[in-house]
From TrEMBL:
<comment type="similarity">
    <text>Belongs to the YggT family.</text>
</comment>
<dbReference type="Pfam" id="PF02325">
    <property type="entry name" value="CCB3_YggT"/>
</dbReference>
<keyword id="KW-1133">Transmembrane helix</keyword>
<feature type="transmembrane region" description="Helical">
    <location>
        <begin position="7"/>
        <end position="28"/>
    </location>
</feature>
<dbReference type="InterPro" id="IPR003425">
    <property type="entry name" value="CCB3/YggT"/>
</dbReference>
<dbReference type="GO" id="GO:0016020">
    <property type="term" value="C:membrane"/>
</dbReference>
<protein>
    <submittedName>
        <fullName>YggT family protein</fullName>
    </submittedName>
</protein>
<keyword id="KW-0812">Transmembrane</keyword>
<keyword id="KW-0472">Membrane</keyword>
Length: 86
């Protein structure tokens, strides 16, 4: 059970880092590279859920920030569940 929760928490952390890298790549227009396209296939389905709810304000898209906050809350929820089970 420890391994399952550890893998889940680590996966959430890694996905958060991937989203952050994807955001930086969009700032530098590097999304057209093969790595950028791979990150787009990984991140866009999750980010699209938030873009439906939160429209961009001018040139600024706040949906990735909210998506990262939700991921961090999910990680905290997994940790709390783990400690509750133990």
């Amino acid at each position: 059970m420890d391994i399952l929760f550890g893998i889940l928490i680590k996966a959430i952390e890694i996905y958060t880092y991937i989203i952050i890298i994807y955001i930086f790549m969009s700032w530098f227009n590097a999304q057209q590279s093969s790595i950028g396209q791979m990150f787009a296939r990984i991140c866009e389905p999750y980010l699209e859920q938030f873009r439906r709810i939160i429209p961009p304000f001018g040139m600024i898209d706040f949906s990735p920030i909210i998506a990262i906050i939700v991921l961090n809350l999910a990680g905290r929820g997994v940790r709390a569940l783990y400690f509750w089970i133990i």
